[in-house]
Amino acid sequence: MSLKEQILSRIHLVVWAAGLMCVAVLFKIFQLQLVEYDKWAAFQARRIKTEKTVFADRGNILASDHRVLASSVPDFKMRIDFRSGGFSDALFHENVDALAKALAGYFKDRSAASYAAYLKGGYKSQSRAFPVVPYYVNYIDLDTVSKFPFLNESRRKNGFYTERRVKRIMPFGQLSRRTIGQLDSDAGDGVYGIEQAYNEQLKGKEGVVTRKRISGKTIWEPKQEPVEGNDIVTTIDVTLQDVAQSALEKQLQKHGAHHGCAVLMEVKTGHILAMANLTQSGEQYRELYNYAVGELSEPGSTFKLVSFVVALEDGVVDLDKEVDTGNGVKRFYGARMTDSHGNGVITYRRVFEVSSNVGTSVLIDSAYRQNPQKFVDQVNRLGLNQPTGV
Length: 390
Hints:
It is built from 15 helices and 17 strands.
């Protein structure tokens, strides 16, 4: 074979090889882009990009003068992931004693030797969520501890991270506690009181951040900013609330009562200025249940007043006339009517004084059984069938 033919054959070989390589590359691109796209897109999403919910700051509950009745402050659980990528065993062993000494000096809840044994035990267990201290700390504590030996190193080397939660605080303690309400520790929603009634307005809207891992670096980018919750301004007057609660407690102690409530309303506006609810708990009285709201029931005793007003205006009752209420139990048209206890033969004046269901029912039944609509019309004339406008 001539030299020219040798050169041409080699060129043809190179061209064919290059052509085959191009075909292989195009085939692989086709396979990745179309055949295996979903598989690798999901892999990329897991490895490079993840989303995390960012909780909004909850609104405050304020008194009528804007003093804070309930507010949110963040606290943190400090943890170490001993199996995080890049965790430096050597760095841990070099600094564990110094870290233990710093923790013991700052928190003063155990000795340096105890902290050292505690941290080494966490390392031995290879925990992914080992608590640096077994409780939540505030931001000042976190900022201080983050500068301690080992924890001040790169997060990749020490596996140090934090869990944030929001703690609800009440600056005035037990004052109006049941009225203000409480949050569910896990969901963060109100479980009773104003916290529950206005939960949607207080909690705001959650945000979303996206985490990207690029070249070993973690970058957080906001996708949707959280919207802070609204503040709720109540009609509670802190000074009057304190007075009402103190006066209620004094009377409960005087009479040895199990519980009681006191509600102070401004007549002109209907605003509730104070709402105190106290229950005996051991040697103390505490706000454990809102009796003013939680024990709402049909207004039986209140309606006795309406019944007597109608009967008096119609002239169908003599307050000094006697009626037999028996042992406090009587049937009316198949229904059983009861009193809390028997009162026997008493005057209608006394019927009202002891709030007798039986005595009041006997009065109204005897006076209006032939014309019950007359009684209904008289009640309606008082406006009780109309909205109050409050």
